[in-house]
Amino acid sequence: MNLEVLEFLLDNENYIEEMAKGVGVDSNASVGIVKLLKTNGGDLSNLKGKQTFHYEKVIKPLLEGVQCEGPIGMIEDDEGNWDTSCVNGGIVDDESLYQSYLEEDFKCQIFRYDAENMR
Ligand SMILES: [Zn+2]
Q1: Which end of the chain has the smaller Cβ count within 10 Å, N or C?
Q2: Gap from CA of 6 to ligand 1 centroid (Å)
Q3: What stretches in the chain show pLDDT beneath 70?
Q4: pLDDT given at position 57
Q5: CA of 85 relative to ligand 1 center, distance in Å
Q6: CB neighbours (10 Å) of residue 113?
Q7: Backbone angles phi, psi at 75, to 5 degrees
Q8: Which residues are 84's β-sheet partners?
Q9: Nearest CA to 68 among 99, 102, 100?
Q10: How far is the CA of 24 from the centre of ligand 1 (A)?
Q11: pTM for the predicted model, two decimal places
């Protein structure tokens, strides 16, 4: 588990609140579980019942499989669906995730590297 990101989320609870709202659960409970995970070093084996639900639906999507927006952001395809312009699988890798949260710019490593070299 990316504990750096976990800590960031506790300092910026709005990410958790928005995700909880989308799922329709109490964000205070979600925040409580993030705190718990931070305390026990990301150990999921202590979670039970509803806590697991909060983790799967609210917390995990913020930690894993976060969508990379690609080099030019989200693009609209021929059918009018918004899709990532990323050609690298569309997922922000673990290494880039903390940086992505800090910069509010969700990109996987390949494009982050390119962007930095183009400056
Ligand atoms: Zn990407």
Answers
A1: C
A2: 21
A3: 111-119
A4: 97
A5: 8
A6: 12
A7: -125, 155
A8: 74
A9: 100
A10: 29
A11: 0.83
